Amino acid sequence: MSNKELTKEDLKNLSHDDLIRLGASLAIKHVVDSLEKNEDTKKEKKE
Tens digit of pLDDT for each residue in 1-47? Predict the structure, then answer.
């Protein structure tokens, strides 16, 4: 799947497997963003 924004109609047409992949990718992206934010915060405190 691409990074384009999904519409409500797009979501209705996704298979169960695609919905699982979408949820997993969103969860992973959230974790990565949080880790990057934490690293940036730690670097700022050291400076």
Answer: 456 788 999 999 999 999 999 999 999 999 999 999 998 888 788 77
Phi, psi of 19 (to 5 degrees): -65, -40
CA distances from 39 to 34, 35, 42, 43, 44 (A): 9, 6, 5, 6, 9
The token pair that represents 15 in the structure block = 């298979």
Largest CA distance in the chain: 49
3-state class (DSSP) for residue 7: coil
pTM above 0.90, yes or no: no
43 is written with which tokens?
């670097």
Q: What is d(CA 32, CA 1) in angstroms, rounded to the nearest whole number?
A: 19
